[in-house]
């Protein structure tokens, strides 16, 4: 059989702890365009600085209306991803977003080569990804942090915003 297709594959044996994360930001209200335009370029620049453990970063467009953009990142391992997520400027972005989503929704899904998947959806009006077919529940208690959701208790680190800070009305005043 003759073919003109250049079919290739990859050898991931050098990346036994590979983590792939998809992140999306969806404009839910017109003023959410401002929020998206504020975060988008900052996220792109931070990936351009190649944080420790980030192997590759790609930008994605899911739809123009409503505006829904995202990224796909490949990380060497979960501790590298979690360390970056708790460093500046990401820590500040996440804390500010959780205080006020600014007319946007945010979601991420994480896939680990060694096993485990997890997701979180904040202000996403239409179920997508895992939420389109799996039971949805509040991201509370043991489901609050990504390391716990993915089943990696050994990788649990202090969250950017604690559950108490996020859900207790007066906690932000402390």
What does it look like?
It contains five helices and five strands. It has a domain at about 20-135: Alpha-Beta Plaits. A hairpin with a 2-residue loop joins strand 2 and strand 3 (about 65-75). With about 170 residues, the protein is α+β, with helices and mostly antiparallel strands. A five-stranded antiparallel beta sheet has the order 2-3-1-4-5. The termini are far apart. The chain is globular, with a radius of gyration of 17 Å. It comes from Dactylosporangium siamense. This is DUF4188 domain-containing protein. Pfam families: Monooxy_af470-like.
What's the quick description here?
With 174 residues, the chain is α+β, with helices and mostly antiparallel strands. It has five helices and five strands. 18% of the residues are buried.
